[in-house]
Amino acid sequence: MENVLFVASESTPFIKTGGLADVIGSLPQALKQYEQLEVRVILPLYDEIPDEWKEQMEYVTTFDVPFGWRNQEATVYTLKHNQVIYYFLANDYYFTRKGIYGYYDDGERFVYFSHAVLEFLVHGDFKPDILHAHDWQAAMAVVLANIRKPVDQMKTVFTIHNIKYQGVMPIDIFEDFFNLDREHIGGLEWNGMLNCLKGALFHADKITTVSPSYAEEIKYPYYSEGLHPMLIEREQDLVGIINGIDTKEYNPLTDPYLAVNYRSARSKKIENRLALGEELGFEMDLDQPLYVIITRLVEQKGLHLVQHIFEEFLQEDVQFITLGTGEQEFEHYFSDIASRYPNKVAALLTFDEGLARKLYASADFFLMPSKFEPCGLAQLIALQYKTVPIVRETGGLKDTVLSYNELTGEGNGFSFTNYNAHDLLNTLNYTLKIYHDSDQWQQLIRNVNKSQFSWKESALEYGRLYEQLVPTPIYG
Question: Are 293 and 367 in contact (CB under 8 A)?
Fold first, then answer.
């Protein structure tokens, strides 16, 4: 039996701001199918975790955490959910706040979290053979594990979910935050700053990211946010493993949010669309295809491309619904265009999980023309709900969406290569051509129905990676 401890800052169903939480919530479940693996997860105990979960937690231990020049207390609780054991690390000063990110001291908060995880390995009841940390908030756990070696022969894996966010801090806080000799600054320093993500890239035994294409892209300056030299140096230890989705959670046949459950029938999608239109006060025209955008409204998601060509495309017989919040520029844009095209566009400047599911279930097309996308889960969810994705060929979008070819009948969506607004417009116009060709459309939908992105294959790849690090076979 090999023990694996996931270290992360969020996880469904407890606390979520993005796709990281979906991965941490579902990958350990998928790995449980292998009897030789015992996978557990440790998270901060945020104030915003709902009471229904807190009431189920049991006390494990309390200990002091040496943290720079001070000691901070940590208390650990646990609960079991879907046969996976989760630990929650409590500290009122750092985690009893509104929300989970966006504070001036986020660097300090998550460096503390990593210190506390290392102390838990000493004081707690679980001794991992592999510590698997995710994104910059958990990166220092890898650094400290490699230096301090709290568990004999423990190996480390670090997963980059989005290299844009690195946990950068002034170098002069080293003594304040780290109980380490100054000789270790070199492993953390990057461009004159302390960089948590760089530290994990330097110290981890293996490095993964969330799609094969993104693993290649981040070796180049355009995508690497400045860290390509480190990734090229470590490329023998870098592997891209595509994310999956929880196909039980995202299942239109059983989804409780939907007005009408379905497997693949278009008639049932139309019933969902009519129910959604009634809920929103938006008259659905069933003779026109419905396109949806469900995203954080930020530049990364390709929204500047959409701005350039949106009004031109709206001259066609189409309807659009946007769901999301984010940068004021984009919120104002979608609100304004919805007011000017009230029969064609609805802008829902909020985020609501149930409403998102209803949009996936109602739409014909899902638009995601990202500037970069490490993996992307939304296009996988769209396919699960039998909605055709339209994407730019980058990162995980390139790995999961094959552009439809009317000559061969292959492909489960539409894509374009260059980050160019008119390439997007041409692709959107092509989607209309295929939509109105009943034979081609039926073939495309058959392909969509065959698309499967469960965690099964990806979990197997993680298992093979773990086997490279531990002495006994996991799948033997």
Answer: yes
